[in-house]
Each structure stands twice: as C-alpha cells, then as structure tokens.
Amino acid sequence: MLKKTFVVAVAFAATAATVVVVVAALAVTSVTISTAAIGVDLSYLDDDDDDDGMADAKEHMTESEPVAPADVVMPTKVSRPGCEKTDRCYIPSMVTVEKGRTVTWINEDSAFHSVTSGLYDAPTELFDSGYLDPSEAFSYTFTEYGVYDYHCTLHPWMEAQVTVK
To answer: What span, in angstroms and rounded, lies between the C-alpha atoms of 122 and 105?
Structure first.
C-alpha cells in the first residue's frame, strides 16, 4: 500500500473559538492535529465524567460580538452574479434614514467590496469606501435630503439605495 503525506493548513477566524482546518487530499479517513502545535487550549475539557466534558465547554462559551454595528450588510457570496436577482447584494437594499444620520456598511463576504455613490456606469463623488476587506466596515453621514444610489466598484451587479428624509 502506498503511504501518502498530506499538508494541513490551519486558519483562525475572527472569533477565537473558530478553527478552520482545510485538508487538501482525497480518501483521507482521519486527521490528527496537536492542539498545542496550533495554539489552542482545550485543557478545560477534563475527564471528570460530567457529560463528556460538555459542561466544562459550555462554561467557556461566550456570545460573539458583532465586528461593528451595521445598518447594511454585504453578505457572503455576493461577489458572484445572482444576488441582484433576489435583491440581496446589500441587505437591506433600500434604507431610509433621517437627515444627519450615519449609515454603516459591513462586508461579511470573503471577497473585497466597496460602497461607492452613484451607479456603476455613472458614479458620483459623494462617498467611496475604497476596497473593504472581509469584516471591515465603512460609515457615511448623510447631511442632505435625497435619494442616493450606491454600488460596488468591483462587482457591477451590486447596487442599492439610501433615502434621506
């Protein structure tokens, strides 16, 4: 039988409790990773026969806080065409606020996005977030009444609107 060696890549997400393991291999039946080698402390999961360690784990669980409070979210997978068909490229796609209110957008996708005033083929120079990394936020304060279209400069199908009353 041929012995195979595999490389395992480990990446930590924004919350410390999330570990993503990617194994690039076929027909792998098991993978063992030393928690010490990747810097994860699971010592609180002891062997004191209390519900197989679940009670200990629950004591260490916390609710995750949002990265930033946001009025509009760029959800996952909107970097691919199709979100415009269900009006879900920016959620919500239409926001109504009072004059003087600040609107905050957050990029929850794994791709870069922008929040740029105007439409893709007719941008304005009112606001432009530049490229937003995943989990990055952008805010703009609307000081004038009106209807403001905006789009993503990287993904032309992504369009939405803010109405200031």
So the answer is: 21
Written as six digits, the tokens of 116 are 């740029």
Q: What angle do CA 145, 70, 161 make, to 5 degrees?
A: 40
User: Which domains does the chain show, CATH number per domain?
Assistant: 8-60 (no CATH), 72-164 (2.60.40.420)
Residue type, 31: V
CB contact set of 58 (below 8 Å; sequence gap of 6+): none
Secondary structure (DSSP) of 107-144? E-SSS-B--EEEETTEEEEEEE--PBPTT-EEEEE--S
List average pLDDT for each run of 10 residues in the chain, which is 165 residues long. 40 36 39 45 50 49 54 96 96 97 97 97 96 97 98 97 97
CB of 161 closer than 8 Å to CB of 98 = no
Q: Are 163 and 141 in contact (CB under 8 A)?
A: no
DSSP-derived 3-state class of residue 53: helix
Phi, psi of 90 (to 5 degrees): -120, 135
Amino acid in position 58: K
CB neighbours of residue 129 within 10 Å? 20
Helices (H), the chain: 35-38, 54-60
